[in-house]
Amino acid sequence: MAVGVFDSGLGGLTVLDAVSKRLPDVPFVYFGDNSHAPYGVRDADDVYNLTTAAVERLWDAGCDLVILACNTASAAALRRMQESWIPKDKRVLGVFVPLIEAMTERNWGDNSPPREVAVQHVALFATPATVRSRAFQRELAFRAIGVDVEAQACGGLVDAIEEGDMILADALVRSHVDALKRKMPTPEAAILGCTHYPLMHDVFQEALGETVKVYSQANLVAESLADYLTRHPHMVGPGTESQFLTTGTPEKVSMHATQFLKREIKFQAA
Ligand code: DGL
Fold first, then answer.
1. Is 154 a catalytic residue?
2. pTM of the full predicted structure?
3. Gap from CA of 155 to ligand 1 centroid (Å)
4. Active-site choice (47, 70, 95, 225)
5. CA count, 13 A, side-chain hemisphere, 239
6. Is the CB of 32 under 6 A from ligand 1?
7. DSSP for 197-239?
8. What is the dihedral angle through the alpha carbons of 155, 72, 141, 18, rounded to the nearest 10 degrees?
9. Using one digit for the tens of pLDDT, what is the confidence trace for 144-195?
């Protein structure tokens, strides 16, 4: 009875926290590929190879369903995995679609033609690989018309968060928001399109100004997973134990994770 949650590092913990609060009876196995983070500066083949290796490890841990709590992997590898790699009895879901459905005022799986929506100017903050993939714009175009998206690749931010250097992370958020505002002075909404960024939510909100609605994924993914499991209860795999696995140094990763989630988290070697 376990579901896998994958990220390149610590960012997916923002999703893990929300899904485990929403579904307290489901054991979750978290896999952080900390020794290979950040993914956002890697090419698509590299992200694909690392992501598939991590997902296989989660299958071995008894998780038939794996959430890619990583936008970079969702953008650069998920489609290729779904087309040719995932066996029939397993599922891998990304984190993009629930957020875009929320922004475009749609219910889960509403595939009606694109239409006008309330927001017209959207700022997207994401990793260089996610921005380069244009996956967000592609998913949005299926659902909405007339939305102007300005993307800002937030170089360096994932590294700073992984290292626990919050002073640098704070400065980077402010300079990326400034750069975005030079291109789009008055966005109505902003998307934190990397699961690491909600750890800096308050700094983004302050730098953007309180009139900008900041969307992040954790709660949206939790709702959509709860909905998915109601419709596909057999997709909770045979694993029974919650675990935290890392390819990094377990002590260091545990220390940063405990600091971020404000509860004790103990990682073990993957
Ligand atoms: N949390 C990952 C994401 O959502 C970070 C990617 C990275 O490692 O650069 O994109």
1. no
2. 0.92
3. 11
4. 70
5. 23
6. no
7. GGGGHHHHHHHH-TTSEEE-SHHHHHHHHHHHHHH-GGGSBS-
8. -110
9. 999 999 999 999 999 999 999 999 999 999 999 999 999 999 999 999 999 9
Cα 145 from Cα 116, distance rounded (Å): 5
pLDDT, one tens digit per residue, over 80-105 is 999 999 999 999 999 988 899 988 98
Catalytic residue check, 63: no
* pLDDT over 80 (residue 225): yes
Calpha distance 85→53 (Å, rounded):
12
Exposure string over 38-47, b if 16+ CB within 10 A, otherwise e: bbbbbeeeeb
**256 in contact with ligand 1, CB cutoff 6 A:** no
Q: Could you tell me the two tokens for 138?
A: 């592609």
- For residue 95, give the ligand 1 atom closest to its CA: 4
Contact indicator for 140, 148 with CB cutoff of 8 Å: no
Looking at the predicted structure, is the pLDDT value of residue 37 above 80?
yes
